[in-house]
Structure to design on (201 residues):
């Protein structure tokens, strides 16, 4: 299972800081939403015990678990990982982008930046090496994804239907169904993706 926080390229103190930030921010947003541990567990499909471990900074959760928690809270992953919340303008330096998914072959997804207004909005950078892919569970109803392929040919699978997205092409789809990004070619695929999640009801 891929962890949301990888030590590759980061020192131990960075890893600790991200873990502590996730613990603090998850507890804060759960409180702001008025969710008990059991309520959040039910909304997110994540065990109560896992949420407790995350809030106590005792675990490094998977990408899928963190996405489910962010979706259930109606915030972006950026919000859960942010060290600080502050000014109207927020600049993220290249080294500030958080790599959320990696494979030994060199595929990765990197969260570039996100905002919670008017609903969680995230921008991602992806690279998929030949023969690799990454799947996602359905997001909350109303979630939309837009992507633009900058190199290679992406096989986008939405609700079991495959779509070929060539270099220079873009795609938009509702992401409340199972979906997958796959590289069936022989060259790396790179793309930029934006995810819009509706505010919590």
């Amino acid at each position: 299972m891929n962890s949301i926080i990888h030590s590759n390229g980061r020192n131990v103190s960075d890893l600790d800081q991200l873990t502590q930030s996730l613990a603090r921010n998850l507890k804060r947003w759960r409180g702001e939403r008025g969710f008990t541990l059991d309520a959040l567990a039910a909304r997110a499909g994540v065990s109560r015990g896992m949420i407790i471990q995350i809030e106590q900074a005792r675990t490094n959760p998977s990408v899928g678990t963190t996405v489910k928690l962010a979706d259930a809270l109606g915030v972006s992953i950026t919000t859960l990982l942010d060290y600080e919340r502050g000014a109207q303008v927020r600049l993220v330096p290249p080294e500030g982008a958080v790599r959320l998914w990696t494979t030994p072959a060199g595929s990765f997804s990197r969260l570039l930046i996100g905002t919670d207004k008017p609903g969680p909005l995230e921008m991602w950078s992806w690279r998929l090496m030949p023969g690799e892919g990454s799947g996602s569970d359905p997001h909350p109803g109303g979630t939309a994804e837009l992507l633009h392929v900058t190199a290679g040919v992406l096989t986008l699978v939405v609700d079991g239907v495959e779509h070929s997205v060539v270099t220079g092409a873009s795609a938009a789809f509702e992401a409340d169904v199972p979906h997958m990004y796959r590289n069936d070619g022989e060259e790396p695929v790179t793309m930029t993706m934006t995810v819009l999640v509706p505010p919590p009801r």
